[in-house]
């Protein structure tokens, strides 16, 4: 039965906003005409706008909220670039050549992000710390070990298995049965990253408007009329980058993108020396459960931030926060009496294909569907979509540029099926635990 304790005294705004608050931009009138109108001013829209502006295009990014107020400043800041489907499933759905290209492009996307941070002098507390993935049982450990071996041999990524006997060198817990490490993944402060990306985009000439929700996009002659709550714009091209915050202004896309809540809790500052015991390598962390958790040290290495799927669809219920804290304590019993300072959620965009996507419909280009790994995928896919709009003939084709995802049956915007989906994955995780002798 769900716990009914009163809500603890924590903030429901992101921990990241303490150091990098999301603010509205100064009010300015909309331009009458632009070369490219971009819907959304998160990582995707700003990365695309930056590339287009530097190619000489006039660009405006239109955001219904404050720029970055969505997932770009609410995520865990882990540069994972995960692909949700395993290699065998990718081959079955898309064929061997595209499956290999998808996996190889993840390496390019991470390298692109790290190059962007360095060349643009983006100050966002980035650390290439590596990621530890915990195995629930022996079968999971073998799978993680095989994957690490494949990454090392096929893609040249430093990755290796960690047997349970060596686990406490990486993570101060006996909860897992070993795991794996890959060293091409790190962490950053996501709100700072967005603020810096916004700074760079504005300096390059990208126009960005907050409170300019797009209500319709209509084909007019060789271009488009984009109607917003702040006025109308004529644009030669349109790029849609709304991802988990797609609304009814694009009903076609909304039938394909399911917004799922992902929640993160932040602990109070831990006693001196405890972090060195619990997270000695200060790595990003994940695990092998279907409804697995992701966690990391804060940039100052004084707190643990712990996240996972929320399961709720409205309001601010307390149970998802309590669920995260229970699981945090299960992994780290030393945190039984720790106080939480923040608990917040953001929307990730899931869809039936479960891989990021660039596609086109009626001339409008879409860059979307990051499935919870947008820190890496959004800047990369946004830039690739910009190159597509430019007709860049020197561009190597992206493995993610093909048909749109299929519509979700009987879905029109409200994820009514989420309780059933969550129950099914919890069932699979219970089976996984039993199989692992847990």
UniProtKB/TrEMBL annotation:
Domain of life: Bacteria
Every FAD dependent oxidoreductase domain range: 35-386
Keywords for the protein's UniProt record, in alphabetical order: Oxidoreductase
MF GO annotations: oxidoreductase activity
Pfam annotation, one family: DAO
One cellular component term from this protein's GO annotations in UniProt: cytoplasm
Keyword check for Oxidoreductase: yes
Transmembrane spans: none
UniProt xrefs under InterPro entries: FAD-dep_OxRdtase (IPR006076), FAD/NAD-bd_sf (IPR036188)
PANTHER family for this protein: FAD DEPENDENT OXIDOREDUCTASE DOMAIN-CONTAINING PROTEIN (PTHR13847:SF281), SARCOSINE DEHYDROGENASE-RELATED (PTHR13847)
Listed name of the protein: Oxidoreductase
Native source organism of the sequence: Pseudorhizobium pelagicum
